[in-house]
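Students often ask why we bother encoding 3D structure as a string. The short answer is that it lets us treat folding as translation between two languages. Here is a chain of 373 residues written in the first language.
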Amino acid sequence: MPTVGILGGGQLGLMLAESLDRLGQSVLVLEADPDSPCAQRRSGVVNLPLADFFARVDVATFDTENPPAAPLAPFADKLRPSLRVLEVTQHRAREKAFLAAHGFPTVRFQVVREDEDLHAAASAFGFPCIAKSALGGYDGKGQHRLSGAADLSTVPARAPGGWVLEEVLTLEVEMSCIAARDARSAVTFPLFENLHTRHILDFTVVPARLEQRLQDDARTLAAGIADALGLEGLLTVELFVGRGRDGARRLYVNELAPRVHNSGHVTRQACNVSQFDALARLLSGIPVVAPQLHRGAWCMGQLLGEVWLAQGRAGGALELAAWRDFPDVVDVYLYGKREARPGRKMGHFVVHADTPERALERARLFREKLSGG
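And here it is in the second language, the structure alphabet:
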């Protein structure tokens, strides 16, 4: 079997490495931070020049879409997903242009190049709107909601890569769908319903509480986007159901992530094959089976730094005595990060119940109890 490389040693890289371990794979992780989850928990974590790292692996993937693409070009033949997929999905303007060119539904948008004036462009585009930096940004970073011209004074006129302006939707549901694709065809995971707080994923519920027609449409969209990209690997498609300026209720593609995704943590318990197992199989040349949802309903809850701070802890371990009162919490997974900060992802947990509503209710209560509520 080949040696698999992972660019990035965060919690996503760690869980992927665990799936590769179960396949008997040799895994090498490129990570400079000695406090990263991978560096603390496993061997085979290195801090090497790219050329030396790629000389030691047969195939490689990444746990974030933010590594600069240009330095990876000499090693493009080893990347899964491909360098082209990375270049499209890490740049919001290219991503929106790709989606529009292939007829995938997006909100109304306008690209503002680096040499163009954001203030003039936003005034012409119309308010309210959202200005998103073309490069970088996650969990709401690099995004500014503009209710009117007065809000422009708080936003830099320029950003690396320029800006993308988007119309503001009246949101009904935020979702994600993960597609796993080999060189020929894609399979999709069940649709995840995602609840955010301050732009950070808070809870993921599956099955999603959305009519089946739209769930089927979302999975078709995800597979179609994977095909259009020529994807070999994993792709997360973030979606909205909402109403734009015309008042019509529609399904929209929001953004793409060419990697395992926070919303997919729930698949480790909820599905016959997890997102991490699916990518591990693809990287190892093993056929991917179609993901199936186990019976009942599931909810993944994020554990952010606030939970540690509420317990008076700086990081690391968490007091889990409350777990004994929650037999429906089937897993708690802590990332081992040593420093807890507000908004920092420190772990997650999964609840199993009879209905999505019950799973979400129990997840909220469990986290409240962990925080001393």
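Translate back mentally: The chain has three domains: 3-79, 108-167, 170-370. Keep this in mind for the problem set.
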